[in-house]
Amino acid sequence: MWWLGPVAAIIALGFARLFYQQMMRLSEGNEKMQFIAQAVREGAMAYLSRQYRVVSVVFAVLFGIFLILSYFKLQNPIVPFAFITGGLFSGLCGFIGMKTATNASARTAFAASKSLNDGLQVALRAGAVMGLVVVGFALLDITVWFLLLYYLFPVFLPESFISLAANPLPQITAVMLSFGMGASTQALFARVGGGIYTKAADVGADLVGKVEANIPEDDPRNPATIADNVGDNVGDVAGMGADLYESYAGSILATSALGVAAVGLSGVAFLDGKTELQAGLAYISAPITLAALGILLSIFAIYLVRTREDADQAALIGALSRGLYLSSIGIAVLSLPIVFLLGLPNWLAIWLCILAGLIVGIVVGKATEYYTSHAFQPTRDIAAQAHTSPATALIEGLAVGMESGGLPIAAIVVGIIFSYYVAGGAVNLLMGLYGVGIAAVAMLSTLGFTLATDAYGPIADNAGGNAQMAGLDKVVRERTDQLDAVGNTTAAIGKGFAIGSAALTSMALLAAYLEEVRLVLTELRGVNEVVIGNQVVNVTQMTMQNFMEYYNVTLLNPAVLAGLFTGVGTAFIFSSMTMRAVGRAAAGMVEEVRRQFHETPGILEGKEKPDYARCVAISTAAAQKEMIAPALAAIIVPVVVGVIFGIAGVLGLLAGTLATGFALAITMSNAGGAWDNAKKYIEIGEFGGKGSQAHKAAVVGDTVGDPLKDTAGPSLNILIKLMSMVSVVFAGLIVAFGNGQGLIGMFLH
Amino acid sequence: MWWLGPVAAIIALGFARLFYQQMMRLSEGNEKMQFIAQAVREGAMAYLSRQYRVVSVVFAVLFGIFLILSYFKLQNPIVPFAFITGGLFSGLCGFIGMKTATNASARTAFAASKSLNDGLQVALRAGAVMGLVVVGFALLDITVWFLLLYYLFPVFLPESFISLAANPLPQITAVMLSFGMGASTQALFARVGGGIYTKAADVGADLVGKVEANIPEDDPRNPATIADNVGDNVGDVAGMGADLYESYAGSILATSALGVAAVGLSGVAFLDGKTELQAGLAYISAPITLAALGILLSIFAIYLVRTREDADQAALIGALSRGLYLSSIGIAVLSLPIVFLLGLPNWLAIWLCILAGLIVGIVVGKATEYYTSHAFQPTRDIAAQAHTSPATALIEGLAVGMESGGLPIAAIVVGIIFSYYVAGGAVNLLMGLYGVGIAAVAMLSTLGFTLATDAYGPIADNAGGNAQMAGLDKVVRERTDQLDAVGNTTAAIGKGFAIGSAALTSMALLAAYLEEVRLVLTELRGVNEVVIGNQVVNVTQMTMQNFMEYYNVTLLNPAVLAGLFTGVGTAFIFSSMTMRAVGRAAAGMVEEVRRQFHETPGILEGKEKPDYARCVAISTAAAQKEMIAPALAAIIVPVVVGVIFGIAGVLGLLAGTLATGFALAITMSNAGGAWDNAKKYIEIGEFGGKGSQAHKAAVVGDTVGDPLKDTAGPSLNILIKLMSMVSVVFAGLIVAFGNGQGLIGMFLH
């Protein structure tokens, strides 16, 4: 059954290649369209190559640090290499996704000039390249590393690697988690850098172009318009791809690690007559086969999507939703025989966890839709407040954003409690958390499809830009606008999935962290027994409760509270840094556009060509510069907290960042989405329509929301997981301080 | 030494009476001034009486619930009465403060027509009435209740009250905490209702008056101007008074409870040859005498404040800061002999905690000043971004707000860790938390003075309004403006103190909550032994660690995480509710003002008098209606979480609300303050000055900031503590469900 994983991964990559080749065979339209597409392509690739150069330096430094840690026996020697591959494949996904997207935009515009359905097909299948590459590479990497570690490395590196001869699985899953940290690091840079790039260009283009010069969006006279289109690709395609690669891989890896650990501590409860190794393999196989099943159903769903020529907004959303629902139902039905055949003793419970994950995902998605679509009250309320003034529209939008976390939080809480207890958490805490992890994997199992609908958005958006700039017939722009508007909703739902699964996965990561601590204690530091209360406990037999007691991880330990406060503060300050970065970069862009309009009056008259390249260069330079500080903060904070406050402080930190970051990310994403769609609602003629005072007020809201929803919000999602991953990978260093009691514990107790 | 408490309380009330009488003897100026003052007075009193009517109903219901709980032996029979008195005195403070403030505004305007110093003296001493009434009543109530419980009630209610014959202190401090819940409940309604009132009127007046009709602030032609001035009184005076009454009383009560509990569990460590009762009394006396000392020094400081006629902004802030610094230094010096004479075995450590509290308070205050005063970079950056557009000013302001929590969080974390360990937390967890509580009491010890400078702000503001509307000489308005501007900074610092002390007090409340649970188990439910792990533990001897184990309060318990998520969500949703309430109420006000301008064109020409009363009525009705839902949510959530998830869930909930609420409150308060002062910075001539595009953009920021800084932010402060208090008071009910394991524990374990 396990082999379903690599097979599905290869099938996914094969279909990605097929879709890419089909797309490339289509026409890119006339010369002007090709020229514009080429400019966007060059800008995007130039940005990506500079970003990868910066990230390479960071990876080289971290690789060096891990080598040093390995040398001092504070980390497993394979970790540095696993870390590198995670970053490499994540970056590769971003690259392929963006290459496809930048090649697809002109082709989508050209196809849309024939019919709405043609446009939809080209954009969606180009998006599907990204979706399938992400899930394909992620599952391939996981399974190949597993094979390597399981069959090859014990032969070459017997001593330094595997001392748990009877059951090497705990070591293997722990090493593989460091592969997740590579992916997270890459994802954070991609999201933060891409997010700053895209919003600096967008805000800059809008502020001068739309508001001051009164020219429409994507007007070729706007010098920032190419940069804006490049931004959609580097932020919403490459950034999002790296982000979800990380979420997907992280949830599978963390769940596998928990499955192995749960079996190890369960006594006979979850062995069902098997050896620990056999049972562990079965529990590792469950998330992998679930992911494999999701891939196959995603490909099926992509083929299902089509639309009629006279489709309206609702029909288009319906076409995409049908794909999502059918693949979800497919997973619900087909996963039952799979978990049964895997021979899991609690197979029915695990299947219920899968259902819970699917349902939580749909609730989170629907709640996002409710709060951000102008078919519903909240967004319309914002539009009504825009009728009063920009200030009231902003207050209302912030309030809507803050409220919008309620339902997702409730769904997550119910999902956690349900999965935990149904999987057997009352008997074995780790098995309960394994159930929560399985729910996260289930939520992300349709990622191949949801990511396709997600990446489709910026492609349609860029196609519209291409059509506008190339001066195509008005009907083409109308069709691409229609495709793009649906993309806004699918993007918001995608963000909901990402953050929801992050919340579920993070619980698993808290436990995985302690499992890593156990390995560090036994394998690297040779600590076999610890004293808890008056009892001597064998480290390999320590339960999670023992860990909690040993490290005093209770809410009355000031180290935990210090960590909690620091975690909350980190989420807020990180958001502040990314938002200010956008503000600064956008201000630079505004000045440049104003300068061009001022120094070359021929631009606005349409007689002279603006200097697009300069705007692209400004966004690129600003994003490079601004992404460093927040990304480094995310890596440094958990290490510093761990050294000072020990394991207890780290767990407080992670809980604080998780809970606050989750609520803050939803608030920012949904406030931004709601402002955006309130503006669109006014544009379709409500409250005075385009050009009215209400519309101007809504544009202010939309502009404020841009960095919230596309930079700070989604970056928080990765922050949460990167901080968990950093904690796991640096556990060896932290445990070196008083066995994980931290400096506080060493000197004050 | 303990008697210093009631004596200082009576002195405070005596001086308050003196200052009030002195103020009332001054002239209220000409007839027009008196008329305006009368209108504001009537509006304010009308509002307050309606608010108290609504609150009375809530109190009656809660009183009934507590009676029922007492009847079923789920709560002590004295609790309902203690609860009522807390609410009563808190309301009384608000009433007296507002009566003074509304009588002082015209008198301040009249005094300011003579000289700046005269204006300052009248406003400050009127503010001092409020400051001294709050600290005086709080300390009097605490000491009188203590005397009653200690000497009288055992005689009349021997059986149902005190079974711990040797040491009744744990029972007494537990009952007195419910007095804190009364104060918190009153405070929440006052803050939320007052906050909605004041900002609805303010936003409404500004949006139509300043932005649309282009008439200056406080122009008599603006129909909402009286409501705006009433709002300053009901929100910033009555609301703030109730708020800080609660903070002040809460910190003393929680610290006392911890002192008693710490002694009870310390063995001989903190007895120093005394009996438990004697040592407990000493630890109770420490916060009370510290507060008494602070009162005496506050009165001294009020007499110190005076200014020269040519004083600028810095000189005025200097005059007020001098008072704060001198009284802080006085406390630092004089508290050393006091804690020594109290005979505390760890007197030097407790004194260090007092110093820590004073220093954390000053750091939080200074950080607030840095982020909100336009003498510093952050606010100037917002002004610079306003030069670009409203949207960038808003992004920058949100970012500044989010960043501004960093330093206070760091100060609080260091303060907690320092106080905890220096007081002896490594030996006795409760004594460590007692040290943290003492730091909170020290931070608030100068409240008599800081609250005077706080309440002085709205008085000066109203004096300015009075001068403007009465058409006094321009120099009067300039002087009151100068006084008012300083008030903005003192108000921001006051909010910093309130939220900082809330964070410190809440830690103490977490432990006090478990102490209450202990009493419920032993006294009300007759549970004398529980099984933890394999051991039978006597409940009266359970350590905090035992509680953590018994209720499984670790970060890997899904009930704790469910509580944590719920707590974070509650903070966000509560903020959303209060902000939307302001938005809705303000929209009603905008419509009314527009209607009056439209239907009676004579108003804007100055020929006809606008209908002030109608605007006052709109704000009043809206505030009444809108305050109910958020206030009830704060009371219901902890009970529901407790019933479902048990003690573990409640502790997670409180930690989540505390950590997130703290960061969110600072973010909102400081973002609002910074926008306000960025506008003021532009008004003094930067970036184009009044009437420029930058100014208009800054006005949008200021308006968005209004409900954040004056409604949602300060309300969160009380939300945090009310939820803790509710948990303490309803502990009996929660423990009734599976001894505090909750429904989850009863049915799933």
From TrEMBL, chains A, B:
Function: Sodium pump that utilizes the energy of pyrophosphate hydrolysis as the driving force for Na(+) movement across the membrane.
Bilayer topology term: Multi-pass membrane protein
Residues marked Determinant of potassium dependence (site): 491
Keywords: Cell membrane, Ion transport, Magnesium, Membrane, Potassium, Sodium, Sodium transport, Translocase, Transmembrane, Transmembrane helix, Transport
Assembly mode: Homodimer.
EC number of this enzyme: 7.2.3.1
Family under the similarity heading: Belongs to the H(+)-translocating pyrophosphatase (TC 3.A.10) family. K(+)-stimulated subfamily.
UniProt-annotated location(s): Cell membrane; Endomembrane system
Name assigned to this protein: Putative K(+)-stimulated pyrophosphate-energized sodium pump
Organism of provenance: Bellilinea caldifistulae
UniProt xrefs under InterPro entries: PPase-energised_H-pump
HAMAP family: PPase_energized_pump
GO molecular function: diphosphate hydrolysis-driven proton transmembrane transporter activity; inorganic diphosphate phosphatase activity; magnesium ion binding; potassium ion binding
UniProt main location, coarse: membrane
Domain of life: Bacteria
Pfam families in the cross-refs: H_PPase
Chain segments annotated as transmembrane: 6-23, 54-72, 78-101, 122-152, 172-190, 248-271, 283-304, 324-342, 348-365, 405-423, 429-452, 496-514, 550-574, 631-655, 718-738
Required cofactor names: Mg(2+)
Enzyme category, top tier: translocase
Catalytic activity line of the entry: Na(+)(in) + diphosphate + H2O = Na(+)(out) + 2 phosphate + H(+)
